[in-house]
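Students often ask what a holo structure prediction actually looks like on paper. The answer is less mysterious than it sounds. You provide the chain, you provide the ligand, and the output is a string of discrete structure tokens encoding the 3D arrangement of the protein together with N-(iminomethyl)-L-glutamic acid.
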Amino acid sequence: MKTVVKNIGLLATPLGNKARRGKEQGRISLVPNTYIVACDGYIAAVGGSNATFAGAVDDATRIIDAQGALVTPGLVDCHTHLVFSGWRQRELPLKLQGLSYLDILRQGGGILYTVNRTRQATLAQLMESGRRSLDIMLAHGTTTCEVKSGYGLNLEDEIKSLRAIGELNKIHPLDLVPTFMGAHAIPNEYRHRKSDYVKLICEAMIPAVAGQNLAEFCDVFCEDGVFTVDESRAILECGARHGLLPKIHADEITASGGAGLAGELQAVSAEHLIHADDKGLVMMAQNGTIAVLLPGTSFYLGESFARAGKMIELNLPVAVATDFNPGSCPTESLQLPMNIACLKYRLTPAEVLTAVTLNAAAAIHRADAIGSIEPGKQADLVIWNAADLEYIFYHWGINLVRSVVKRGKPVSL
Ligand code: NIG
Ligand code: FE
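The corresponding structure tokens follow.
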């Protein structure tokens, strides 16, 4: 079926099929007064001026009137922990008393609380809470997201979580990309024998996950007191041998060497990077690793902010994502992280737009299919309650999405 989105006041999109780095990240296409033609879910043409669109329309065409609004590619959230049971609002008073994220984890709370609850949940319960969160994401403009497992931390419950991601992908309009993250924390029963847990990940979980085609990527929480650089390397190399591409939670809370390891392993992405040093960032830049930054997590943990300007200067492609999870960033919306990226990282609106579309798509190996508005790509679009790009980085704390188009179809919100 043919869809035409007409009366676009401003079309803002990065261009290309791969991540944009350095100065290129801020060079986007801005086309005033235009329209988009989509056929069977894919963009067929980005039109000339609004006046010429009549030629693209026949009786069967579905017409969406953008009424002069800003249109961008659908947002791509390339880092979430969406499938879980066990919200952690009870940790808020502890946080306010001054306990740190790692203090709470060390006391058996934090991720481990959510692990207990997730183990008790059925597949259907995980899917139901996941579905609610996906609805919220879509209403806030996200049309594709990556989702990590990592609240099961045993073979059965990691598989259950990844199945929930796979099933949600089938039933929900949003596209989901699965990542295996059995190395998200050390489960209580392995507290005093971490090496046995690493062995379980490598010898049982990774072969099972890869064998059943349940994930595309493998991620590790490389952090002081969680997985060391050597343990992370062993897990990610094992994942790679089984076809799971490496990603790393790197240098989130302390400088732990994760960025350097990401470069060494030619990881697809290194994520967080709040405390990454120059040497690690240079290693990443030399090896094609994408920096996935999570400004909502810095905000919520009261941490400092990743050095995004330095990363751009070093010619690294920067992506921005939510990190949606019940502990360090409980929000499904990418919009506040986008505002924070602009105000705290001092990235320009154009750089942030690229970070949440094309570069985020590249961080989940989807840059050939999504992340920009060009012929051949999926017709995933956001129509904003805004007339220009600056507005969505300026008017904050509310949902500025007017409507969403997913694979050429208007999504009812
Ligand atoms: O990216 N760092 C580890 N994982 C998440 C937090 C998960 C949780 O606290 O439940 C993060 O911040
Ligand atoms: Fe995370």
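Residues 194-211 form the longest helix (18 residues).
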